């Protein structure tokens, strides 16, 4: 990889992807008639359905090309955690409690051992999230799929009055970040490309871990966010996934300035150095050490940190729209 190249050069254009999603959403104009209408609009982290005094929610996501790292290491025991984490974290940001999950596996051929290991991770993810896995679907799609793709859909619920949408966010609110465990399950098209062009997954990092082991670290499940939202006033929450800090713009038309970023995980610092990537490119691709964030008034900080001890202030909401890193807008 040439120095300074980025996510688009690796094959993923996040700006084009965002345009594609907006184009798709514009076509979704039909609304169900009768009971159980949709709440809100399409485009937040999870879609809501009115169910009496309750709001039900659905989220869908997958592991992505992190599966190729699991294939390289012949270790699929943790990717199930990633699959569940990517779904339930999208529910937590709206203060929704995950209830049930269904998985979807598309493969070019069944491996009994691979299925066993995937099941181990799914079960552990369900335990961490306190959620039932109630079913799923496995499809053998030889000729359409190469390898194995793991995804899932999650059902969540909350009293309508307790759903957090971001509508109450105001300028001056604090951004309180929570550390990630690494790259989580985003940006792997770029991370893998950098790794494969700089010694591969067996390269040993200063910590003693290999690049492959670091990349395979499972995504953190931020279940404690529910306790934080119950303990104090929270105006919004953000799951920092693919797109990095740009995810904050899904919460409010106001701006979000990360002035004091959390420490960058070793594997992401290595990826930036070896790939010759700019800070801007990294912060609009990876979580860069902040996998989750609360947006809350200053008076909520102590209670929030009691519920989530490793949460720390890293920025604030500003009047100008967009996502900012130390005052510089990310595009």
Number of helices: 11
Name of the CATH architecture of the largest domain: Alpha-Beta Complex
Helix fraction bin: 25-40%
Low-confidence stretches: none
Structural description of this entry:
The protein is α+β, with helices and mostly antiparallel strands and 331 residues long. The protein folds into two domains: 132 residues, 2-Layer Sandwich (60s Ribosomal Protein L30, Chain: A); 156 residues, Phosphoribosyl-aminoimidazole Synthetase, Chain A, domain 2 (Alpha-Beta Complex), CATH 3.90.650. The chain is 31% helix and 25% strand. The strands form two sheets. Strands 8-10-7-11-9-12-13 form a seven-stranded mixed sheet, covered by helices on one side. A six-stranded mixed sheet has the order 1-2-3-6-4-5. A hairpin with a 2-residue loop joins strand 12 and strand 13. Helix 4 packs parallel to helix 5 and helix 8 packs antiparallel against helix 11. The model has no long low-confidence stretch (mean pLDDT 94).
